[in-house]
Give the backbone structure.
Amino acid sequence: MTTPKKRKIASECRKFQTRWENEYFFMEVRGKCVCLICNESVAVLKEYNVRRHYETKHQTYMSYTGVEREQKVKQMTASLLAQQQYFSRAKKTQENATIASYEVAQLIAQHGKAFSDGEFVKQCFTKVAGIMYPEKSQEFDSVSLSRNTVVQRIASFEVAQLIAQHGKAFSDGEFIKQCLTKVAGIMCPEKSQEFDSVSLSRNTVVRRIEDLSANIKHQLADKTCVFDFYSIACDESTDATGTAQLLIFLRGVDNNFCITEELLDLTSLNTTTTGKDIFEAASNAIDKIGLKWDKLCGVTMDGAPAMTGQCKGMASMVCTKVQESGGEALKMHCIIHQEALCAKTVQLNDVMNTVVKTVNIIRVQAHYHREFQAFLTDIDAEYGDLLYHSEVCWLSHGSVLRRFYSLRSEINQFLKEKDRPLHELSDPLWLADLAFLVDLTEHLNTLNKNLQGKDQLIPQLHAHMKAFCVKLRLFEAQLHTFNVAHFPTPSEIRSAFPKVDLSGKKGKYVSVITSLLTEFSQRFQDFSTIENDIKLFVTPFMINAEKVEESLQLELIEMQCDYSLKNQHQLLSLPDFYRSLEEAKFPLMRRHTKRMMSLFGSTYICEQTFSLMMLIKSRLRTKITNDHLCVILCILTTKLIPDLPAILQAKAQLHCSH
């Protein structure tokens, strides 16, 4: 018996009939018959199936007839097409974004740029797209790059600002333009010519950055006119070419208790760096911007003799000039620098010398170093290498010791294999000293990190320092009975060598803590001098009125007896609280607060800026002029926003490269 052949739908040549749109509300989408009402599709292009779907599920639509029915079909068809185009556009946008990402990645590789420059490039073309075509900016932002004349000029300024903020070379403008042109050619090819008109040549970028810096300086000059008090922080260091650079930062407070902290100047000291040279540079910077000397209330510097000298030091000369102008200024030694000097007094040189010597043995010889790294990788050690010790790095001691302690077993095994055993690593008494030093330097590093950071006021820094002194007294008392509750690393050694009595070390450890506490007590005299002023600023309702200046006593008593002010002090931040005080009733208290808020407690902002300077003026970029270095740092460190419309208005020409 012959088996009947199965019907093949494909062979029946069934096609969609145009009349089905009006009769059954169906349309053809990519070879499928789709219902305009419910968006369901019919599996087989057969009128019977289409009619059955319509009559069983959408009988209510039979009421539409004539012109009304035709309009309904057109409306529903347009709606379905709009939905499909939305998803197809989204898919196309994502495809373009991926292609653009590959194109820019290729340019990054071709120009030998760091992988992390992708994010910088993305910021640039997102800025440009946001200015030239705001409606397209979201599509530009979707490009993944992780690790008209006036408009074009603004776009050029924005990119120049980003170049300065990231410390990039001026010539990187052309690289950015290539990236922009590539991305625009893919994302919106019809607009690529207009993107190409954005001028980003080296000379244009230089002019843009100079204009941006000049505008920031102009804004700063306007702000200084309303300062009630200000202070400066100064530090000097050498750049990659050996030129001495003096950084001067300014912190000012206005009548509304708003703080402005900006770079005042970067001055190159091409000959000598005496106190007089530094003073003249600082004096010129202050006079140039139009600040009044009688409003200068503090100068903060590091411990260099040229800065701190009693007679010929820069700080003394500044204070003398302020006094001659009718004001009074405080000399402040950077609190972080003083803490670092205290940390150097920890007398466990036998431990530190052994650690540094061992690290040098392993790292100085290239083949030893490679073998040690391979050894650590093979045994899956916690770390992949040892750290070099640096005297000038604030946190180096603690980091080197912690890494050495964590890898002590691996170091011991490696050196034994090289027939250069380190016997100290088998001595529990030496290991106990190492463990104690590890924990002590970590306590010091924690303090150092707390003292770092921008915008910290004197009371915050003073509180960290006072708290550490209290901790040292606690450590001293506990170590008398060999209580190592706050020194967990020696406890590990005690557990590893239970038969060894380590309590004999307590005298040595107590002596180290006592010496450190004495050093902390002797230093920070500049902070101790103004301790009552700090208490008055932070806790005006808790300080005894007899302990403050006589000129402030009556206002302080008036304040302390006002319960509503006491409640406000608990609810508001310090600037907000003093801002709320009546100026006519508490003028001297408000004046005292402005002085305290304007003081720099450290030169951290200078140290941070020097780090940025070394990245900008590196050994590969030594020809950058001192003026250009200054304008870049001005843009890089500022919190002010350049006024681009004002810059454009000041320009006589509207050519895109001027």
Observations:
- Residues 66-110 form the longest helix (45 residues).
- The beta strands are 26-29, 32-35, 41-42, 227-238, 244-254, 259-269, 296-301, 330-333.
- The chain has five domains: 14-85, 88-200, 209-334+603-649, 342-526, 530-598.
- The two ends are 93 Å apart (CA to CA).
